[in-house]
Specification:
- The protein is about 30% helix and about 15% strand.
- With about 160 residues, it is an alpha+beta fold.
- It has 2 domains: about 80 residues, Ubiquitin-like (UB roll) (Roll); about 70 residues, DNA polymerase, domain 1, CATH 1.10.150.120.
- The chain has a 5-stranded mixed sheet, sandwiched between helices.
- Strand 1 and strand 2 form a beta hairpin.
- Helix 2 packs antiparallel against helix 5.
- It comes from Roseinatronobacter bogoriensis subsp. barguzinensis.
Length: about 160
């Protein structure tokens, strides 16, 4: 066991972990940040996506010990300072980009990474970027609308599927 220190959602944290502890377990089990969902443990579904130093990472395949000193943002860290929904979260609510909600944290985090790289993506770029996130409920159209709205673009002008 060793102490692994990192910054999570803007605050310094430290927890004793084994070398094989996954980042998803570190966040959920040791820090109590259960917004990061684990759906497959094989990096297929994308429900566990978090930002590590600003980049989208599937936390079910990253070892916490390898991220000593990293800056991690989870879906809990996407809220506004007053606790209200952040811009991306609000867009997902406003455009019904969720149904059961299981994939939503990973979708929100992937959207944050996309918009950091490309603030005004096209519909095609959004769809391509989110290919690593599986949603079994929505059919994706409203998720794409939510991402477009979060980017400040017209979400109503999307092509029909």
């Amino acid at each position: 066991m060793s102490q692994v220190k990192m910054k999570v959602n803007g605050r310094e944290v430290s927890a004793a972990t084994e070398g094989r502890t996954l980042l998803s377990s570190y966040l959920r089990d040791l820090l109590g940040l259960t917004g990061t969902h684990v759906g497959c443990d094989t990096s297929q579904c994308g429900a566990c996506v978090v930002l590590v130093d600003g980049k989208a990472v599937k936390s079910c395949t990253a070892f916490a010990a390898d991220l000593e000193g990293a800056e991690v943002t989870t879906v809990e860290g996407m809220a506004n300072p007053d606790g209200s929904l952040g811009r991306i979260q609000q867009a997902f609510q406003d455009y019904h980009g969720l149904q059961c909600g299981f994939c939503t944290p990973g979708m929100v985090m992937s959207t944050a990474a996309l918009l950091a790289e490309n603030p005004k993506p096209s519909e095609e770029e959004v769809r391509h970027y989110l290919e690593g996130n599986i949603c079994r409920c929505t059919g994706y159209q409203n998720i794409v609308r939510a991402v477009m709205a979060a980017s400040g673009q017209d979400a109503g002008a999307l092509a029909a599927e």
